[in-house]
């Protein structure tokens, strides 16, 4: 999997890649009560969170994200300069404007990109909605009703769900996936035993094949309806998911992160669930794994903040698993880093990579027989003010024709058991498998 954000069809006059001068944006008020998923078609960008929603299509600008250390921070500088130079016509004084959106690859050796949509619909928690049209030069925006009609037309399509079946461990002979996994976990534990690693997160693959391509918009609706669903619903081209984990949010001078680490399956009965939660909150192994992540995030934010506050661990119950989560807030100091800069500062956290960071990345590259693509990378958006939200791209699938490709990982620390960690990944995979395989 790689970052393959498809900007979709042109949705505003003059949309084109950057290079022909500053961007020009116009903010248009839309009717209240719009359901963002009614505007989400089979391409472009979708983001839904408690703070609001964004649906973007078309291409006003494309920002390459290179490789190597600091790749996201360098891209953040380019994004900030591009958006800051934009001329924004905002008759209502909303403070809105163009935004850069997308999903970025997990590994720094994999290049990616972000896009500025030519048509971006934003809604707030109260149901108010705006369209931000962006292009390389002045233009007259179409009426709001025409904009909505255009988006709804692009979102209309067959919502019939295809029949599908699971494919275990793509590219490997049947039954070999568990053996490969066990060997990788043993190798990781040996590295931990020598002191080269404190923790490494290893992932494994699964796939689903259908009789015809999965309808992306309907998959988003299914994910939203799922009981015990996650906080952040997203789609970037064919990369779709619902993540529970906030990498970072920036609102003015306030940055918030909510790292998660430590996992148990949801029980099949009240007694089984109570037993699992007792293990989650009372296990020294889970506590150590969680603390590694919290300390890394707090230390990262401390580099750009005057004060960092770390909350108490809480249990978060999702559809198939429960996690430990801790909210961390930081009062940022000037010059204020943008939300995208903060994402680059924190990624990859030990929740999805390991510790120490460079050693964990090297172990992942050596032990995983595939490229993670955007799995466990940052997904989200940053606007002209530097505010934005970035989640970790978990509980996701990459749609490719009739196939959906899935990944799930588990943190390997002292005391990890290969078969127990395999079972943990299976419970995480179920969050998407049950949606894809349901009639």
Describe this structure in words.
It is a single chain. The strands form four sheets. Strands 1, 2, 3, 5, 8, 9, 10, 11, 12, 13, 21, 24 and 25 form a 13-stranded mixed beta sheet that branches. Strands 6-22-23-14-15-20-17 form a seven-stranded antiparallel beta sheet, covered by helices on one side. Residues 1-19 have low confidence and may be disordered. Helix 1 (71-84) runs antiparallel to helix 7 (339-346). It is α+β, with helices and mostly antiparallel strands. The chain is globular. The protein has helices at 71-84, 144-155, 176-193, 216-225, 270-282, 284-302, 339-346, 357-367, 418-437; strands spanning 24-30, 45-49, 52-57, 61-65, 87-89, 99-103, 112-116, 119-123, 129-135, 164-168, 199-210, 232-236, 239-243, 246-251, 254-258, 260-265, 305-310, 314-317, 321-325, 328-332, 354-355, 378-383, 388-392, 396-400, 403-412. It is 28% helix and 32% strand.
Rg of Cα set: 21 Å
Question: Which structural class do you get from the secondary structure elements?
Answer: alpha+beta
Q: Give a quick account of the main beta sheet: strands, pairing sense, barrel closure.
A: 13 strands, mixed
Strand residue percentage: 25-35%
Helix fraction by DSSP (H/I, runs of at least 4): 25-40%
Terminal-residue CA separation: 26 Å
Mean pLDDT across residues = 90
Number of strands: 25
Please mark out the parts with pLDDT under 50 across 5 or more consecutive residues, or reply none: 1-19
What gross morphology would you assign?
A: globular
The helix count comes to: 9
């Amino acid at each position: 999997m790689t970052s393959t954000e498809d900007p979709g069809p042109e949705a505003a006059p003059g949309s084109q890649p950057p290079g022909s001068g500053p961007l020009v944006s116009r903010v248009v008020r839309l009717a209240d009560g719009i359901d963002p998923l009614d505007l989400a078609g089979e391409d472009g960008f979708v983001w839904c969170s408690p703070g609001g929603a964004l649906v973007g299509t078309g291409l006003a600008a494309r920002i390459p994200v290179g490789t190597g250390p600091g790749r996201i921070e360098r891209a953040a500088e380019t994004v900030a300069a591009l958006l800051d130079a934009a001329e924004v016509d905002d008759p209502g004084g909303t403070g809105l404007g163009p935004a850069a959106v997308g999903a970025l690859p997990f590994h720094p050796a994999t290049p990616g990109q972000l896009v500025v949509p030519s048509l971006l619909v934003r809604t707030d928690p109260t149901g108010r909605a705006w369209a931000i049209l962006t292009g390389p030069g002045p233009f007259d925006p179409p009426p709001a009703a025409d904009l909505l009609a255009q988006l709804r037309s692009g979102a209309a399509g067959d919502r019939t769900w295809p029949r599908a079946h699971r494919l275990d461990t793509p590219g490997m002979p049947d039954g070999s996936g568990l053996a490969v996994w066990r060997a990788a976990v043993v190798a990781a534990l040996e590295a931990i035993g020598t002191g080269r690693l404190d923790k490494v997160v290893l992932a494994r693959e699964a796939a689903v094949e259908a009789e015809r391509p999965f309808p992306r918009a309907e998959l988003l609706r299914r994910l939203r309806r799922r009981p015990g669903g996650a906080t952040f619903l997203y789609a970037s081209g064919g990369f779709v998911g619902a993540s529970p984990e906030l990498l970072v949010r920036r609102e003015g001078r306030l940055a918030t992160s909510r790292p998660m680490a430590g996992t148990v399956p949801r029980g099949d009965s009240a007694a089984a669930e109570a037993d699992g939660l007792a293990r989650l909150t009372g296990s020294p192994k889970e506590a150590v794994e969680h603390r590694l992540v919290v300390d890394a995030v707090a230390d990262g934010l401390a580099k750009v903040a005057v004060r960092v506050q770390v909350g108490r661990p809480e249990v978060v119950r999702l559809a198939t698993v429960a996690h430990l989560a801790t909210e961390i807030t930081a009062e940022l100091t000037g010059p204020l880093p943008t939300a995208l800069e903060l994402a680059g500062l924190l990624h990859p956290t030990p929740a999805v990579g390991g510790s120490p960071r460079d050693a964990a990345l090297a172990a992942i590259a050596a032990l995983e027989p595939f490229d993670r693509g955007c799995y466990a990378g940052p997904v989200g958006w940053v606007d002209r003010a530097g505010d934005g939200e970035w989640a970790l791209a978990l509980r996701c699938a990459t749609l490719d024709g009739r196939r959906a490709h899935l990944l799930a990982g588990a943190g390997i620390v002292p005391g990890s058991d290969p078969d127990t960690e395999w079972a943990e990944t299976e419970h995480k995979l179920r969050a998407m498998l049950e949606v894809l395989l349901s009639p």
